[in-house]
Please model this.
Amino acid sequence: MRNLLDINGLNIEFPTRRGTIRAASNVSLHVNAGEVLGLVGESGAGKSTVGNAIIDLLEKPGRISAGSIKFNGEELRDKDADQMRRIRGDRIGMIFQDPQTSLNPLMTIGAQLVETIEKSTEIRGRKAEQHAVELLEQVGITESVARLKSYPHQFSGGMRQRVVIALALAGDPDLVIADEPTTALDVSIQAQILDLIKKLCKERNLGVIIVTHDIGVIANIADRVAVMYRGEIVETGDVAQILGAPKHKYTRSLIAAVPRADTKLERFTSVDYIEGTTNNFKRIDIQNHWLGETKKQDYDGLALEVKNLDLSFVLQNAVFKRNRRMLKAVNNVSFSVKQGETFGLVGESGSGKSTVARLIAGLYQPDSGAIEVFGANINTIKKSQGNLSARQALQMIFQDPFSSLNARMRVLDIVAEPIRFYKLTNSESETRRIVQDLLDHVGLGAAAELRYPHEFSGGQRQRISIARALASRPRLLVCDEPTSALDVSVQATILNLLKDLQQELGLTMLFISHDLPVIRQMCDSIAVMRHGEICEVSDADAFFNSPTHPYSKHLLDLMPRMDLIKP
Amino acid sequence: MLSFILKRLAQSLLVMAIVSAVSFSLFNFVGDPVNNMVGQDATREQRVEIRQQLGLDDPILTQYTRFVGNMLQSDFGLSYRIKRPVDDLILERLPATLELVFVSAIISLFLGITLGIYTGIRRNSWSSRIILSSSLAGVSLPTFVIGIALIYLFAVHLRWLPSSGRAGTVDFGWWKTSLLTVDGWRSIVLPAVTLSLFQLTLILRLVRAEMLEVMRTDFIKFARARGLTERAINFRHALRNTLVPVITIIGLNIGGLIAFSVVTETVFQWPGTGLMFIQAVDFVDVPIMAAYLVLVALLFVIINLIVDILYFVVDPRIRLGG
Amino acid sequence: MSKHSPKTRWERLTDNDIMWSFLSSPGAISAAVVSSIIILACLFAPLIAPFDPFDPAQISLWDGKLPPSWAEGGQSQYVLGTDNQGRDMLSTILYGGRLSILVGLAAICLGMVMGVTLGVIAGYVGGATEAVIMRLADVQLTIPGILLAILINGVGRAALPLELREEFAIYVVIIAIGLTDWPQFARVARGATLVEANKEYVQAARIIGLPSWLIMLRHILPNTMRPILVIATIGLALAIIAEATLSFLGQGIPPTTPSLGTLIRVGNEYLFSGLWWITLFPAVALIVLVFSVNLLGDWLRDALNPKLR
Model:
């Protein structure tokens, strides 16, 4: 039986001024009708490049330098530009990651659909409109006739992605390549979209290639898996085997790095296959170091207490107060965190968890309510008084490794800024030594101090952020989705680092995330937020084993079933 | 929609208010108004009388209110130099400027937009590169240099076209147009080309930059992935998205033309409001300067308002919210 | 992870993408060479010009209106001929170019300092301050620059007593052009500030407790310089043209110490009587000067645009 798509020995190159970069080396894989192949790898593995290469949409100056791509027995590399153009959309469809930017904002959904239908099929005019309506219904959009006249910005993210899928299917292709189709969507919407893709795959007997970095997606939807690392396919197999009994060292590290939702481990088992994460830097005895000297206050109480927080944002301003539309971002939120524990704040985007974090950090002022950090109400302390020492006690780590560091400052200056500002040392050389020790301890190495942020990878930048946060010797660390933007293996190392630091320094952590398995691995207690309100507060084990609030149960159901991963 | 228009109107009124205040201070504080009107020989009594006539001893606010009242009736008094009512002078010369601006606008918009789109679509062809380099040259040529060069070439050397002035006018009631005669067209060609060149190159480069920006977007990538033809992509998708920001460009263009008409009219001795303004600045003829300021501000405010409304109409994201 | 040691200052300056794209583009290199020569020649005019055209003692009316040295009637010491007052054209162009560049630079600096300061403050502080500053900028932007410059210049000159007008003309021109430029800088600076202020490193600085002015100065300002530089290069060319236009209209720099624009104005009166060199050479010099500034600016804009790489 002939495969729908057969790739053999594919090499993709990008000539640059520093020489030629090999984006893909000797890549071989195949897909059949009616099955979903998951092409999984971390950033830079080359998986999107392979997807683009199949339909001849490589970004210049990329080019295929060797190998064959056979689609239904025909060699695609032999086709000329016009033939490829006709294959695109008609026989092979593609879905991209961000539904917001994939649709032309100035054309109605109907116009874009009809245009594609008329290009890819013989259907014209009124019949094309009808076909468009059918397509919309097949992807689960109700009121499809009225929706034809809507513009993309009038849809939500999930619905837009459904429209994108409809467009990709308009020509009735045999193969669909989906490049990170759910990465930009909320967790609950993700599940719906993946279900839709699976359903369409079986109904239409499509071959589907899902390109993703998310093991959870693979577990959910793939029949077979191909694992890519640095441009090469390191392992292929069916999903049960890959997830349960991976053979290649990289695959094993990758699977091991995925946070488990069933039990809490002490640390993530090492992911040392990935070069560069071996920690050869000297670890300082931080408890006896200057950095370990947090001011020992005789304070027995709660590290953090939040009482009845309220915050509203103005959605639409108007001259008259009653016409203003307000959004209640935080509604009567209360919880408390004991010293030394890790408290998790969970919710989907828009739940208000990040807003609460920012309120606690002092970036926003609440409309009403109180926030007490180690017994001190941070909103009533005036600037000049003990405000600085209260500020020193609380530090924050952010989500985006690219915008959390000032691109124009050297690492030394970034990490030293709090030390210098609070005047914590007596001399510049002492500051410098401390920074070097800190950089060693977080696994970057003292030599990093003279470099600029753009010279580092995402995971390394998060380490710089952690070093900066630690430089003021805080006692409470707020972590706002610190690993959401990182590859799963890098995430494991950063989470390990945070766990180690917490143990060494006795830190209290407020950990914010939408990712339940990560929360399970990191937190002792959990609060669930939705629409600005707290739904449930409980101890972590109790939460994962027997949640009380219906929304909590809903979230737990959405967690990808990783049962295939053997403990 | 209504609140949008109201906000823009409020802003326009604010602009006009500030401009009128500036205009008013010009009157009162640049030089001595009395001196300007009567010269050196007047006696003290005459001066006092004129001061009273002009109401120059009243409190500032009263003077300002009077000024605004007059302004709304387009009464700016008499020109110091020509001794005729300013609004008459302006009305006389406005048609010349407006026609010049109109012809230049057509040239610069038409050529600028089409060439900009062309160089945006065919980025690497020879013709594109030539056009692009010439546009760089065009932006480097000050308007008056172009004017002088054209006069020298076409009027002095080749003697094809007149070197200055506005010929062949026909009366349409109060409006004197030169667009209805061959002579009129011959005299407007050089000034219009001169005026349009700078703006043309600006528009060309802006449109091209917009076009290139659009071609890099995700929805263009997705359109390619669906196998749409280059033609469909260029004209149905890219063009539409390019033209939306181009609307602001049109507004800016007309603004720039009105501004540089001052220079062009000077070079070609074109009898428009621009030339009148320069002569007024030379002489410190404040009534004309003040009136011109208000006139220009009014024109721009109207143009900006129209552009904003157009934006509103054309972009569904603004129109339909969501 | 970078495996080599951190770069030295010099390496950082020379071994990056900007320098590479520069060195591989013959257009950019020739533009840089030509404009450097011109700009340096003009700036060093007092050292390299054969005469000092601003010194009345060196001008001789007898030598006036002489054609270039290669034409009939020309003299070898006046390579490009002389103007109506007997000044050597080559020297006058060099000195005039120097004036044009200096005025352009000064005006842009004035506009930039004013605009960036106001723009960053507006963007960071927000609220009423932002509203007022941006409204002012918007109002001023309603009137096109050149008109405003003419107006400010005219009013400025009229305000000065007669004796001082010529001496201070150059400063009035600089102020006039600079004042018309600040709104552009303010708008761009504010836009960039709004983008930067939302970034997490600014939030980190706020959490540490840094005061607002320090955040604006140390964190926000350096990161807004990229788009500002883009505007500045465009603005410099426009400022030079603006000064030339003002001088041509008789409103700018007086003929006693002429800039290129003034020279063209003077030459224009003699153009039709056949003294073509008084207009042509300054015009060519002006065009070449502006062209080089534009070319360099264009290349700089492309190099600074991260999306185009």
